[in-house]
Every structure is written in C-alpha cells, then in structure tokens.
Amino acid sequence: MFKNYLKIAWRNLIKNKVFSIANIVGLTCAFAVAILLSMTALFELSFDQFHENKDTAYQVYLTSQTPRGAETSTSNPVPLAGALEEEVSGVKRITRALSEDALVSYKEKDLDLDAEYVDAEFFNIFTFPGINGNTNNPLPSKNTVSITEETATKIFGNTDVVGEVIQIRIGNEERPFTIAAILENTPANSSIDFDIVIPFENHPEYESNKDVWNSQFHPVYLQLEEGVTTKQFEENTRDFANLHYEGSIESDKRDGALPDGNGQYKQFHLLSITNMHFASYKAGKADVARTFPYIILGVALVILFIVCANFINMNIALSEKRLKEIGMRKTLGAVKKQLFFQFWMESVIVFLIAIGLGLMASNLLIDPFKTLFNTKATFADVTQPEIIALFVTTVFVITLIAGGYPALLLSKLSTLRALKGKLDLGKNRLRNGLIVLQFVIAIVLITGTMVLHGQIEFLRNKDLGYNKEQVVSIPLNGKKNSYSVVALLRDELKNNPDIISISGADNNLGRGRDGSLSSSRMGFDYKERGVFTYTITVDHDYAKTLDLELVSGRMFDRDFAIDSLSLVINETMAKQLGEEDPLSIRIPMGDNVTYSVVGVVKDYNFQEVSKKIQPLTLFMNKDWDLYYAYVKIAPNNPAQSFDAIKSVWEKIEPQAEFLGSFLDENVDRTFRREKTMATIITSGSVLGIILSCLGLFAISMLVVAQRTKEIGVRKVVGASVSSVALLLTKDFLKLVGFAFIIATPIAWYFLNEWIQNYASHVPLSPLFFVAAGLTACLIAFITVGSRTVKAASANPVKSLRTE
C-alpha cells in the first residue's frame, strides 16, 4: 500500500511540473534563507551562555539620582571591588576588569593586542579555560600574564611558550612580563574578548587611583553566594552606597535631586552576564532587549509562513485537476484515511526534496552570507538537538496541514459532484485568510525596509558639526610618545600640498578600524551646584582640522603658554554653566588649580550619531596622552593623500600597524547593526513578495480555470478584454487592500517605537506606508493580471467548450 502511495505521489508531481517546480523552488529558497537567518539569530542569542557560573555571575552598575534625573554608570572607582567584598554580605567572588589595547614586544616583533586588565578572581567567575601552563591560576603574580593560543602563534609561532618573557608598554614605559599560561581563544559569542590578560595592578591609572572614589573608569563583575538573590544584594548595598558616596549624594540633594522609591540617591544593581550583550541603560535601569536576533528570527519565520501558505494554497489549486480521480477513488471504495495519506505523501516528498536542496544552498551561501552580515555564526548553532526536533515537528505539522486540508475538503464532496469536476472554492476563508496574512507580512516588511533605509540615509547625511569627508583618523598604537608622533606627522607632511592640517585627541570620532568607541566624563561643583561634562584632551589645530565652528573666543593657540590651564567648551556645556558671558567662567579643579574658559565651539556629534549632544569640555594638557591623530586632506585626490599618510606612518612607526580610516567610514561603523538589519529586512521583503506572488499566481490559475465558461459567455456578449481582466483581478486586489488596512497600524506602531531610540530621526511620513501599499498592490496586479489578461484574450469558443 505504501509503495502505491509513493508511486502515485511521484507521478502527480511529474504530471504537474509547473506547480511542483514552483513549490520546490519556493520551499528551497525559504529553507536556505531560514537556516542562515536562524543560524545568525541563535548565535546572537547564545552570547555568554558558555560560562559555568552564568546563573550567579553579574556585572555591577550604579544608578544615581541627579538633578537631571536617574543616570546609570558601569564605570567604577578602583577601591570599590575590595570594599564591596569586605563590607557587603553575599559576595562570593569579585573582580575588576578593563579592556584596552596593549603594545606587546618580543625581540624584533611588535603587536598591538586587545588586553584585559583583571584581578585573579576573574578566571573563577568567567569560564576561559587554559590549555597549557598554570591553568588553575593564570595570573599567579603581578609580573605574569596569560595569552590566547592565537596570540601565542602570532608572537612565537607555537603555543609551547610558558615561561617566555615579553615586553608590554604600560603608560610611558616598557615592562617585562612572564607568560604563566596559554588560554583557549575567546569564543566568538563572548562579550569579553581579549588576546592577553594582565594583572589589574599594572594598569597605568591604578597607583594614582587605588584609594580614590571619584575617579571611575572600569567595570566590576561579581559572583553571589549560593542562595543570595540580586534583590537581597541590592538591599545590602544601600548603607554601603550612602557611606562611600556621601559627598556626591549631598551635592545632588543640594542641587534638587529627588530620591528613588526606596529613598536612595545611589543604588547598586546587578546585570546578569548573559544579558550584557543586549543591555542598554535608560532612566536609571538596564534595559535588556534582544530585538536584533528576534527580528532576524521573525523574518525567517515569516518567510517560512509565506512559503507554507503558498504550499497549502497550491495544493488546493491542484485539487481542481484531480476531482475526477478523487470521484473514481470514492466510487471504488476509498475512504478519508486513504485520501489523506495520498495527499500527505505528496507533501512529504516535496518537503524532503526542498529541505535537501535548501541545506545544499545554505552551505554554498554561508561564506558570502557571513561576510555580508558580519557574523561569526556557524551551522553548529542550528544543529542542536532541540532545534532539530523543533524543525522536524514543524515540518510534520505543515505537511499534515498541506496534505490533510485538501484531502478533508475533497472527501466531503459527494461522489457524483466529484466525478463532474465541481469544486466551489470561491468563498474559501482559509485561502483568502492566508493571502491576506501573506500580504500583511509583505507590506510590514516593505514599510520597515523603507523606514530603515530612510533612517540610515538620514544619519549618514546628517550635519555632524565637523568635516567627516576630508579627515583621516589614525590610532596611535606605536611605541613613541603620542605628541611626538603627531609632531613627526606634521613635520613629514608639511610639504605635501594635499595635507591641510594635523592634530590629535584622546578619543576617536565614530568607530575606527581598531574597533574602539569610548568617551570620558567628569563632574565638579560650579557656584555651589554640580555640573557634569564629557571631556576630550586635544592638541593644537583640533578645531581647524575638523572644521569646528567657533561661536566665541578662541581655540588653543601656540602663542599662549597658559593654555594648559584653559578650556574650550561646547554650546551645551555653556548653557549648563548658565553664564551670560561664557568667556568669564573660571573653574577651580582641585590642588588650587583654576581653569579658564577661552572659547566656545558650536555643538558637534562627538559621540554616536544616534545620541543627543551632551556637554563637552576640551582640555589641552600634555601630561594626558593622545590616542588618535587627525589629518585633514584636500578633496581633490583623497586616495593619493591617504597613501602618502600611510607611507609616512610606516616611516615613523615601522613596527605598528597602520589603522587609518576616514571619519565618514568611522561614522558608518557606528550604525553597522542598523545597516545589517536593513539588509536582512530588505532581503526578507523581496523574498516574501516573490513567494507571495507565487501563491497568488497559483490561486489565480485556479480561479480562471473555474470561471473559464463565464469568461467565454462575457466575451460573446461583447465584454472587452480589460473589463474581463478587471473582473477577475479585483477580488485579489480587495484582499491586498484589506491587508494594507491591517498592516499599516502594525507597521506604524513598531517603527514608531524603534525610531524613539534615536535623538534625531527621519519623520515617520504617511508616504512610507502609502508607498508600501501601492508597491504590494502593483506587484499583486501584475502577478494576477498576467494570468487574467491571457484568459480574457483567449478565443471564447475554446472557453465555451471547457465542459
């Protein structure tokens, strides 16, 4: 019996080649894309899940009630970790950690590595196993370090290097360190990524800040004792916070800050390490949003839904051609069970073929896919037992529906009606409902694509307040003093007519090729009220190089030796200070040193483009290092100028890698995730529309076949081709119109929520929604119209002979 089912199923697939190919192609594309997208989403969701202590390990963050509202900080003072462990109950282990670049030298080789400055307990909280050396305690003393396998291979060519001595630049000096252990490479799904681990006490800021509570610059992680909850820990830290931040609390209370619901002005909170990758901080709390992977997973699911809806609709369409076969089977005694198994078997064969082809296609596309979407996901992310079980169950249910529904529909027909080939599906609610759902999804995706691309273009073309097209930023990752490097660049490039000016700063604008994106912030009292400001240490010609607009006063000038005690502020900072004449401001900052404001620059986006512009103060103090050089070039020949800069760099710092990039590239990298999301949703929209149209085409074939005689009669009595085509098409366009009505408020709600994450954004114009609806209608009209026009143009004599 099973063999007969299989034979008949195969014959029917061969007989209906158009439908079979359409089904297999659609399912293959959907499966291939769904596998790749699911792989990416599951990889994102797996971040930091590999740590053995993930259920009890947390990152510490502090919420402060300020006159500006609740603010959060993950940066902490150096003495905090030790004080928490000693004074607050419930802490099992605690560690400080700070990610920075480190220049490592061995013989004639220099490497700029991602370093993590940590305490020894770091390895007892996080799971980063060792493979060689002192694996139980990778940092046994202050003068030891541990490196990853990949780093060992880069430096030495092998991993058998425990006991070797390397030189690491700490501040302005090189120090020798002994390699104590070789660690496994950090997993691709780890929020903490490093090449080398260095004891925290060696950080250049450690000694000067080890007893200072108002200098905050590093994260703190801890593990709670068994049975201690995060709520208990937070309650236990309230007295601790009131004691150690007493001065700051009094200052905030003086300036009008209001306490939280528990009467606290400072409250420590814990964020699970499994949530770090997805966390942002709003209104004093950590907001954990897995939006990006869920959107990717959602796109994969809707593509599968669309293609499965098509599959069901096409099976119904095919049923029209098989009515006499069904009638004959029923005459000969076939029962519902046999009809069901026949249709189900055909569905299973199509799905198995499509799954096999989909796996092959996804395997062929995985490398370009990973490059396009900048992901490190692998097939291992989707070959987990639970994922495979879910997939098999889903396929089983879909094939049951796709094969069982037509069988159920047809089995209800009387034998006589089936033999006559009569099947009235004109009011089929399931079919119409599936078409509406398909186009609701398609319209939402099209609208999302338009808004996403509109927002990206808005950010890309926004006036940031500085020249991003002509300025190259270069990380100062070599051995020489940073001011010396900037001076050497000026000297070497001064005769190049395409080089306009050169400067430096301690932060980058946008995200450079070195991956860095950082900012510094400080607070102080001014006229008995607290103010805060972001800070940037700069060199001469900073405003000239970036084309910053000076509102009043002057920039730092070589003719003024006192500029080491001068400040330049932005307009937002000037408003915060509240003086009618900002140039009259004098700010005392410890040790009886007073700084004077000498200039005000127009606000510019010194942080990510999506953020609101904050108060900013520029310093020029050569005791503080620069980390980036800026070179402004003439617009006529940027490629040649870039090569000239690179050549000079290789002469000045021959051992350091040149990582220069234009600022517009840096800015683009800050919304790389938005671009990835836009690419995914665009691809999903295109594929969704194509697959929806395949189903629509199949249904239009069914409807035309059912109304062939009616078409012939209308043609005979004088109906035009256009009127007949419109008659056949309008029912489908009504469904698309209904889908537009449903999709528009859904799309508006989600897109409106999304754009609120940006301080400035593209207006959510009705044109986005109208354009999406018209696009869907046009595509549906072309799809259905191509079939209906052909039917309407046919010879009416042939149409009347169909019975």
UniProtKB/TrEMBL annotation:
InterPro entries to which the protein is assigned, alphabetical: ABC3_permease_C (IPR003838), MacB_PCD (IPR025857), Macrolide_Exporter_MacB (IPR050250)
The organism's place on the tree of life at top rank: Bacteria
Location(s) in or outside the cell: Cell membrane
Domain (MacB-like periplasmic core): residue spans on this chain: 26-238, 521-635
Keyword Cell membrane on entry: yes
Domain ABC3 transporter permease C-terminal: 299-414, 685-796
Keywords recorded for this protein, A-Z: Cell membrane, Membrane, Transmembrane, Transmembrane helix
Record's keyword annotation contains Cell membrane: yes
Chain ranges passing through the membrane: 21-43, 292-318, 339-366, 386-411, 432-452, 680-705, 732-751, 763-784
Pfam entry (one): FtsX
Chief subcellular location: membrane
Bilayer topology annotation: Multi-pass membrane protein
Protein name stated in the entry: ABC transporter permease
